[in-house]
Amino acid sequence: MAEESEREPAEKAGRRWPGSPWSQNVGGSVEEMRPGYSRLSLVVEPRHTNSRGSVHGGVITSLMDAAMGIALRASHEPGDPDLMGQTTIEMNVSFLKPAPLGERVVAEARLLNKGRNIAVGDVEVRQQSGDLVAKGRLTYFILRRAR
Questions:
Q1: In this predicted model, what pLDDT tens digit does every residue of 32-42 receive, in sequence order?
Q2: Contact 109, 121 (CB under 8 A)
């Protein structure tokens, strides 16, 4: 059983973001996912830019939220009958460097702590050069059926 759950994330790598219509609209690809970790990438297109021609902060935060959400989702116990999903309840992001049009940015998410109802993780977004574009800490509420 553990082998199946470990293979499933690897099979999804390289696919477009799963989930909401919003994340599908933003675009990007899942490069790697496993319990507690994910890596997503996005090439900055004209639709992603702000008035100065660099990636809009909302695109970066969407990428970060998707990366952490995927890392958390991959960490849930398969078949948990009480699990109904998860939702972001807090996000703190520091924007450190702009990413220009055409730049490939990569978000790496790492789950720091997961309890029954609350999970916390860090996400870094970097340019191809390795320069840090943004760093954030996200908190999620894990939705469960009432007992």
A1: 999 999 999 99
A2: yes
